[in-house]
Amino acid sequence: MPKYLLQVNYTLDGVRGVLAKGGSARKAAATAAAKSAGGKLESFYFAFGTTDVYVVADMPSNAAAAALALTVSGGGGATVDTTVLLAPEEIDEAAKAQVKYQPPGS
Fold it and tell me: Which of 17, 19, 33, 24 has its CA nearest to residue 66?
């Protein structure tokens, strides 16, 4: 199943929710949301810095990952930046692919 990195940033309402119910409640909510979209969480970590939460999730498709991110962002408590993660074997496959390309100006 494809893997995705979700970088979550809480809004003020989201921070209030974390303060009210704690971090474990947010992890449980994220786990349930991913499962409802056909996926599962591999990891869930709170962090210092510009991103509040880092999640790695296995999702069945880009559409399922987008649905998860849209639903979380649409809830108003957080925004989500989603990155598709590639396994080393996928990069090996890409490196072997024959692509015909002409650079600009050539």
Answer: 33
Closest CA to 33 of 9, 57, 61, 3: 57
CATH of 3-96, one of 3.40.630, 3.40.50, 1.10.10, 3.30.70: 3.30.70
Measured from the Cβ of residue 27, the count of other Cβ atoms closer than 10 Å reads 17
- Which of the residues in the chain have pLDDT under 70? none
106 Cβ contact partners less than 8 Å away, ≥ 6 residues apart? none
pTM reported for the whole predicted model = 0.89
Cβ contact 79:11 at 8 Å: yes
